[in-house]
């Protein structure tokens, strides 16, 4: 049937504007949609007894006896990624970054505020249990990682040894302890105005864990070999002593933490920010005092933070950061998007501090304004959400085209509801190796991402690209809240 001419004209206008937006690359993503999904993801990573309001319904209770091997209750917390191990070090970093997202962007989280706090609390309830054995023990993990990785099993079916790992005064771990202190202190700020009692518990535990980190110094991977090569502490522990003390300073304003920070001599240069390396994050956190509070005492941290950004910005003379042809920051080949989300969080947060204090800085002769940092952060987030050469969203469940074969046991195996009987360790591998899309959508999960040429293979065995992780998602929560608040939903 022939359509009236006006229809043709409307269609032409629509098509023309579509081409124009695609060509100019200026279309904004639906940030509020992505924000809600990025938080929902954490439900899929939950360990322990699930509450009645659990929305990711293909998951059920798991690991209900965690801790029993050491006669303690260590149920709850998060599985780190596509496996069923609870690694305390990345779990604590995840909790710190989720908390920081709420602290900086709380007003912009809008209707997602309660869900974001719940996601923090799922982490801190566990971390409080992990810290419950102090001053003798800080529990740093549950589940033998090698045994776990040799199986492809749903968390609900897990039958590998749930070995309990801890650090102690004679087998120290200042890195994992410093990060745990950071997480508890940051979360204490999150809950201060909504649950004072809980906030006080978090803060007093944070102080205890920080004292433990300072008193018994050492690298946790020297004490607990089983965490290598999964979450070995490559950068050592000085960065976590700095980071933990910086969060305690923020939570308490107790100047003894500043004196401690100044005594550390933590002056290593940084061009990365991750679950392992916290120097840049600590400097941005401390530089807030120099910018927002105009306190000159903190100026050295501002200079160090700006040195970091000069190593990240593409046009800076001191840049040591590679970009893909499509414009994605490219740090390391395995799970690169974790660096992109963590660094984008620092870019948008520092942009916010700069804007509030009308501050600019220079990288050689490159003038850096708050817009320079904000635009780079937005470009990275837009790339992740689909404005990239492969035209794929690296967030599962966002837009029409997203990874369908993510490297994630629970997502790739049939749910307990659809397949109630046990699926054994080896039996599960047929699902890893199948070409079918995953039966369960892990909504909101951001995967490891593309290679250095913007290429992506939607393949479960490509774990460097197709595995999600809690520490990829936690920082993007803050970035998305920031963008949702600035650009609306469309
Ligand atoms: C908070 O703690 C105080 C003192 O321990 C107690 O009296 C009060 O009932 C607690 N409030 C809540 C909401 O739990
Ligand atoms: C953004 O996503 C939300 C949630 O899915 C939806 O309700 C809204 O209509 C979307 N906005 C636009 C402009 O597409």
UniProtKB/TrEMBL annotation:
A molecular function (GO) term: cellulase activity
Q: Which domain of life is it from?
A: Eukaryota
Q: What is its EC number?
A: 3.2.1.4
* Glycoside hydrolase family domain segment(s): 31-480
List, in alphabetical order, the GO biological process terms annotated in this UniProt record.
cellulose catabolic process
> Keywords assigned by UniProt?
Carbohydrate metabolism, Cellulose degradation, Glycosidase, Hydrolase, Polysaccharide degradation, Signal
* Catalyzed reaction equations: Endohydrolysis of (1->4)-beta-D-glucosidic linkages in cellulose, lichenin and cereal beta-D-glucans
The catalytic site is made up of 407, 458, 467
Is Isomerase among the key words of this record?
no
The residues the entry assigns to the signal sequence are: 1-27
* Record carries keyword Isomerase: no
Ranges where the record places region Disordered:
442-462
- Which InterPro entries does the entry mention? 6-hairpin_glycosidase_sf (IPR008928), 6hp_glycosidase-like_sf (IPR012341), Glyco_hydro_9 (IPR001701), Glyco_hydro_9_Asp/Glu_AS (IPR033126), Glyco_hydro_9_His_AS (IPR018221)
Q: Which family does it belong to?
A: Belongs to the glycosyl hydrolase 9 (cellulase E) family.
By what name is this protein known? Endoglucanase
Q: Which organism is it from?
A: Dendrobium catenatum
Q: Which gene encodes it?
A: CEL3
